[in-house]
Design a protein that fits this description.
The protein is mainly α and 84 residues long. It is built from four helices and no strands.
Length: 84
């Protein structure tokens, strides 16, 4: 693995892991009132586009990070729609 890919994976771990506390909090409290539905809709679309881009260029860090982030963002988005 090249230094560039290592850096990419480190960045991916940091940005993806940042969603875990938010998902945990939402699942524990069911409180999504402070979250913007439009922001999470746009963010989720952006993550899908990043994932497609990563697949197109064959970048493992981009693919892995955005696959995991997509799952986390979808959990938040679904909770926001369900619980308002």
């Amino acid at each position: 693995m090249s230094p560039t890919e290592i850096l990419g994976f480190l960045a991916a771990v940091c940005t993806t892991a940042s969603f875990v506390p938010q998902v945990w909090h939402i699942l524990k409290t069911r409180d999504t009132r402070a979250l913007s539905l439009m922001m999470y809709l746009l963010f989720t679309v952006g993550v899908v586009l990043w994932l497609v881009y990563g697949i197109m260029i064959g970048s493992a860090p981009v693919i892995v990070a955005n696959s995991i982030t997509l799952v986390l963002a979808l959990v938040i988005l679904i909770c926001k729609v369900r619980w308002g």
